[in-house]
Design a protein that fits this description.
mainly alpha, two-stranded antiparallel ribbon, two-stranded antiparallel sheet
């Protein structure tokens, strides 16, 4: 029954995230916001919404290991498996902005997380600091994107309006997108409840920590939207979307999700997260720059290295669980 709750929860989270992104993107496009800006903000945040609702609910229900494990585990999964697997299948071109802006912000956020959780807790003030950071990052990214809007992007906006309006015009189009947002939010709430309850019960039954469940089953499941987005984008030749989706999601996970979760409920951080998992996240994040910066390209070899690093980390988790 608990495994069914997890499967049901993950399915509802994926469907809810899709509906929320579709509705929010539609409202933004109808407001004449370009697809580039939508991608930098709404899509990146929307694909992180499953992690958000699961982490907040886990913290409220006194399962901090599940909450923070979901954030760190999702970041490791995004970099190691999603980006690694995508580059292994299709070598990815890297835009200069990913090296100059997005990677430094992701690296800085990862290092800040390490500094702030060393005392074993992420309190409300530290959470507010993270939330302020993600607001500043999004505002700057939107400003850059809008300032550099091209004629091609304006044309793409006009083409996107047909899909965004559900074939309707005026108030009816906006109303349908608002309904999609509300349905998505409801599915996310229901999915997170089922997933958290199922995960906590399984951890108790197997005698493993909630942190381990958060780092593995929950983080992999809530990262499904990022996996689908990056693979589809790479297949369609949108390498910029495939890479920015992962980096943007990692920034939102730390600054947005960990930040909002700590503001809602101060977050105790399990010792193993501080001594093991955050360091792995920091190391793989740092290793990404020399892989993509020299030739603005993420090769198949780099993809294989990222994938191997994640598999080594997963093997370490299994080893520690069996040893414990």
């Amino acid at each position: 029954m608990d495994w069914l709750l997890i499967v049901l929860g993950l399915a509802l989270l994926v469907a809810g995230g899709e509906a929320l992104v579709r509705g929010a993107s539609g409202v933004a496009l109808l407001a004449r916001v370009t697809p580039a800006v939508v991608g930098l903000t709404i899509v990146a945040a929307g694909t992180s919404m499953p992690e958000m609702v699961v982490s907040v609910q886990s913290a409220i229900e006194e399962s901090p290991g599940l909450a923070i494990g979901n954030v760190v585990g999702s970041n490791l999964f995004n970099l190691g498996l999603i980006l690694g697997l995508t580059a292994l299948l299709v070598p990815l071109r890297i835009l200069g902005n990913s090296v100059k802006l997005e990677w430094p912000v992701m690296m800085l956020a990862s290092f800040q997380l390490l500094l702030l959780v060393r005392d074993g807790q992420l309190d409300r003030l530290e959470g507010a600091f993270f939330v302020t950071g993600v607001i500043a990052f999004v505002s700057y990214a939107v400003w850059i994107a809008r300032r550099n809007t091209s004629l091609e992007e304006t044309k793409e906006l006009d083409e996107s309006l047909t899909t965004a309006s559900f074939g309707r015009t005026g108030g009816a189009a906006i109303a349908l997108n608002v309904v999609a947002i509300l349905v998505g939010a409801g599915l996310l709430a229901g999915g997170s409840t089922a997933l958290v309850h199922g995960a906590v019960n399984i951890a108790s039954a197997l005698g493993v920590s909630e942190t381990l469940i958060g780092l593995t089953i929950v983080s992999v499941g809530t990262s499904a939207p990022e996996l689908a987005t990056s693979l589809v984008a790479a297949r369609r030749g949108r390498d910029d979307v495939a890479v920015a989706n992962v980096i943007g999601s990692n920034i939102f996970n730390i600054l947005g999700i960990a930040g909002v979760t700590a503001v809602v409920h101060p977050l105790p951080v399990p010792a193993e997260i501080v001594t093991r998992d955050v360091w792995w996240m920091l190391a793989i994040t740092a290793a990404l720059l020399p892989m993509m910066a020299p030739r603005l390209r993420l090769s198949r070899v780099s993809g294989a290295i990222l994938l191997a690093a994640y598999l080594a980390y997963a093997g370490l988790l299994v080893h520690d669980a069996m040893k414990g």
